[in-house]
Amino acid sequence: MFSSLAPTDRGANSPRRIGDTLEESNHARRVRIRDTPSELIDAKIEELDDWRGEMLSRIRGLTKQAAPEVVEEIKWRKPSNPFGVPVWSHDGIIVTGETYKDKVKLTFAKGASLEDPAGLFNSSLDGKVRRAIDLHEGDGIDEEAFKALVRSAAELNAS
Questions:
Q1: Which of 88, 97, 132, 143 has the fewest C-beta atoms under 10 angstroms from its C-beta?
Q2: Distance (Å, rounded) from C-alpha 16 to C-alpha 22?
Q3: ∠ CA 141-144-150 to the nearest 5 degrees?
Q4: 104 with 97: CB under 8 angstroms?
Q5: Residue 67 · residue 94 · CB < 8 Å
């Protein structure tokens, strides 16, 4: 639902303006259109308030360590998903961090072109372009291998 909208002639599909807000029906937290991607990722982690938020925060930190030049973005933001999907990019998408009830899915946009000697990829293995890592509650991740994937993805995007 949109609130703080000026003229009533704006329909639900009308373009949003800076300062508009989205409100998720199940949560009291209001998400402003003007929030930066980093603020939206912070809010998503806070809203999750469970192992998925902790995992997303950990992945975020590892991604920034591996590729300090990474840019945080939010894509696929809509009223049913006001926080959108966290995306880390450098010369193109490196990895996205989607959260589901039972997992955190890390999708590498060009994962099929990356070497994965540690075998982290465990999802979307039949795709021609992407590869993903599905993490469930209690799962660990090889931090050095993950950072190597992020660095490789950033290098591939830059080439």
A1: 143
A2: 10
A3: 90
A4: yes
A5: yes
Overall CATH class of domain 36-158: alpha beta
Output the six-digit token pair for 73.
Answer: 């973005």
**Dist CA 117 CA 72 (whole Å):** 27
Amino acid in position 74: I
Amino acid letter, 59: I
Q: What is the pLDDT of residues 61-78, one digit of tens each?
A: 999 999 999 999 999 988
As a dihedral over the C-alpha atoms of residue 122, residue 128, residue 130, residue 132, rounded to 10 degrees, the angle is: -10
Q: Are 108 and 132 in contact (CB under 8 A)?
A: yes
Compute φ and ψ for 66, nearest 5 degrees: -70, -35
Domain ranges in the chain are 1-34, 36-158
Q: SS3 for 46?
A: helix
Query: Taking phi first (over 0 means left), then psi (-120 to 50 degrees means alpha), and beta for anything else, what does residue 98 get?
Result: beta
Look up residue 24 and give its two tokens: 């998720």
Neighbours of 48 (CB within 10 A): 17
Q: At what angle do helices 143-158 and 51-66 cross, to 10 degrees?
A: 50
